[in-house]
Amino acid sequence: MAVEDSGLAAKGWKIDVISADHQNKPDIATNIARQWIDVEKVDIFMDVLNSGVALAVNNLVKEKNSIMINTGAASSDLTNAQCSPNTIHWVYDTYMLANSTGQALVKSGGDTWFFLTADYAFGAALERDTTAVVVKSGGKVIGGVKHPLNTADFSSFLLQAQASKAKIIGMANAGGDTTNTIKQASEFGIVAGGPETRRASAVHYRCPRTRLERRARPELHGNLLLGSE
User: Fold this and answer.
1) Distance separating alpha carbons of residues 122 and 107, to the nearest angstrom
2) 203, 224 in Cβ contact below 8 A?
3) Does this model's pTM top 0.85?
4) For residue 202, is pLDDT > 80?
5) Element (H, E) at 199
């Protein structure tokens, strides 16, 4: 759509848009990107969803002096620790998610946190950035657990979070992991918004209308969805 809207085709430009499935695996993504640069002479990479994949392709485009405009991966390492003159980090990142939600929640009373973190680059970055904001704002992280990508059963993780008595359960995951966590959290009676919330509601970057089942109980603690990629 953007190529069509640009009007460049009418001026004689030939612009091809191609895509491939990297299966969320940095090595597969790097091989595809290398083939595209060396053989197919691709000029620019867009989207590059998944932070682990984006960080790998980031190194390749720097090596090959190509260009990546990242609109899918959220790790703030793309613009901090692994900043490159060849990569533009567009749209949102974990620093933004952490500072907008983390700071506000601590100020509103959510000063103890437990993290459910997806065990890859995005989850690690979101937990790290949010922890920094929580501590700076006067709160503290009292526990956390990492889970594999594409986890089906979150029951043991949610039980640990519930047992911690943290006011906020910070969910640093995305996609199907987020969906499964929401569903299973509702079965445990864990709600969003803190222990005094009577109507369950979730805060999620991509799904603002998400609602948990209405099972709020005052002894249970809050559940926050920080973001996704």
Assistant:
1) 25
2) yes
3) no
4) no
5) none
